[in-house]
């Protein structure tokens, strides 16, 4: 095989990968469930746990809760929770940001009646189509004749293998220069 056929095969494979990533990103954005970043929401159960039978366990005659009026005020919990006397807070947690999913389990000590939360981050899969977009602008001065320069850029990361992220990057500036490139990033 000559070099041009190999290069063409690589370019076609990359274009196919970009097209699949674009379709998956477009479809994923259209069908993504609405999750409020401002308001507390009920979260779905862990998929594997939904199938497990629920059983009644004898426990304490009283359960230790966090004072409802204070926690509703401090955490700005929603009205649907605050006004329901059957709903009580037994534990809280703060989960660190993570690219993957985190499994969270609320526990109850049946001797003391106190609740706790345990969490485990799921490892990321080896391969993934991702849809991370970034648009931005920069302003500054060049060292050439001290001219003002404005740059507009865009980045779309669409594929990940381990910690290597593949994407497209483009930028243009007020001096008339434009750059477009395929980008590979490694994160640790």
Give a verbal description of the structure:
It is a single chain. The chain has 2 domains: 3-32 and 125-186, no CATH class; 47-121, no CATH class. A 4-stranded antiparallel β-sheet has the order 3-4-5-6, with helices on one face. The protein has 188 residues and is an alpha+beta fold. It has helices spanning 3-30, 47-50, 68-75, 79-82; strands spanning 102-108, 115-121, 127-141, 148-161, 164-173, 178-186. The longest helix is centred in the N-terminal third of the chain and has 28 residues, at 3-30. The protein is 23% helix and 33% strand. The mean pLDDT is 84. The chain has 4 helices and 6 strands, in the order H-H-H-H-E-E-E-E-E-E. The chain is elongated.
Major sheet: size, sense and barrel closure? 4 strands, antiparallel
- Specify the helix fraction band: 10-25%
Number of domains: 2
**What's the arrangement of strands in the largest beta sheet?**
3-4-5-6
Order of helices and strands: HHHHEEEEEE
Q: Termini distance?
A: 37 Å
SS summary, helix count: 4
SS-based structural class? alpha+beta
Shape: elongated
Q: Which value, in Å, is the CA radius of gyration?
A: 25 Å
Overall pLDDT: 84
The counted number of beta strands is 6
Strand content: 25-35%
Uncertain parts: none
Topology:
Blueprint: H1 3-30, H2 47-50, H3 68-75, H4 79-82, E1 102-108, E2 115-121, E3 127-141, E4 148-161, E5 164-173, E6 178-186
Antiparallel strand pairs: 1-2, 3-4, 4-5, 5-6
